[in-house]
Amino acid sequence: MIEINRKLCIYCNTCTGVCPVMANRLREVVVEHDPEKCVDCGTCVKACPVAAITLRAGKKNL
Ligand code: SF4
Ligand code: SF4
After folding, report:
1. Minimal CB count within 10 Å: which of 10, 33, 34, 41?
2. 2 CB under 6 A from ligand 2?
3. Helix, strand, coil distribution of the chain in percent, nearest 5
């Protein structure tokens, strides 16, 4: 799963588009993340232009 720093997020929608399993979605001005869908690939972490996303230890990479 990931963690999104909402103070840094500029709601650019990039992390929603790059996720291969559609675990992120922009809803109004909040990115909703679904840890059940996330496969911890790190793609959105690298794609975020303001480094607002951190990959955390989740069920798949403990
Ligand atoms: S780490 Fe990968 S699977 Fe998880 S939300 Fe980001 S892009 Fe999607
Ligand atoms: S890519 Fe980063 S700045 Fe853009 S919506 Fe996602 S968390 Fe926010």
Report:
1. 10
2. no
3. 15, 25, 60
Q: What residue spans define the domains of the chain?
A: 2-55
* pTM score over 0.90: no
In the chain, the percentage of residues whose pLDDT exceeds 90 is: 82
Could you say which DSSP state residue 11 is in?
-
Q: Kindly report, residue by residue over 25-50, the tens digit of the pLDDT.
A: 998 888 999 999 999 999 999 999 99
Pocket mutation for ligand 1, best pick of 3, 32, 40, 48 (most atoms within 8 Å of C-beta): 40
Mutate to test the pocket of ligand 1, among 39, 45, 59 (most ligand atoms within 8 A of CB): 39
